[in-house]
Amino acid sequence: MNTISCIVVDDEPLAVRLMESYVVKTPFLSLKGSFTSGTSAYSFLQDNPVDLLFCDIQMPNLSGMELSKMLPEKTRIIFTTAFSEYAIEGFRVRALDYLLKPISYDDFISAALKAKEYFELVDALRPSGSVTEPAEVTKHVVSTSVTEPAEVTAQRKIKSIFVKTEYRLQQIDLDRITYIEGLKDYVKIHLSGSSAPILSLMRMKTLEDTLPKDDFIRVHKSFIVRLAAIEAIERNHILIGPDRIPIGDTYQPTLYQALSGKALMPG
Fold it and tell me: Which range of residues forms the domain containing residue 166?
């Protein structure tokens, strides 16, 4: 991608002009329009899709958050706002970054470079065969490392996956995953040797369908565990290090069946 097409959306004319000046002086950005309302921006986007929005959150009639949920999957967004409490909500709608007003050019270019890195990575993965469908990259990206015929893939156990975390695609070795926790539209991937989990915007079902069934098992509507990471089972809880993962009643038979070939179970 040579340039990133973008628009500016903010109900404050002064803020629009500032962002316009920043975009114009950034060589890899191409400004396609500026709008002072979410509704006018949405109307424009119906016939003029762009790669990226620099969008205020608090706007009358149609807020930036509401607008972001109406965008095509491939269109990304960088939020601009004076209110820091919107940061977490911004992540949930797949924002690449979040700029707190007043915005300096240093902050702006830092966010713009994140967008550039993201789009370059998407373009690099698409022709390489690492991702089977480009749309999957822009949503949340979970893929095996190479594209193979279905019957070969079924026989070959994948060793890693790519997941989207904030503005980057991160490769995770499956043998590092201890368990996965579902939180509505995103997941926490807990890793051995890491104090902080990886947060990624995707649904549990998508990840569950990707992971090898003989290594990973769903034990609760909100938890998937790697069987080899289980240290003990105690009172309907799985123990992995200091963490206790609940076992849902409906998942118990499947779990104990999976464990029956690995240990002596009482009759």
Answer: 157-260
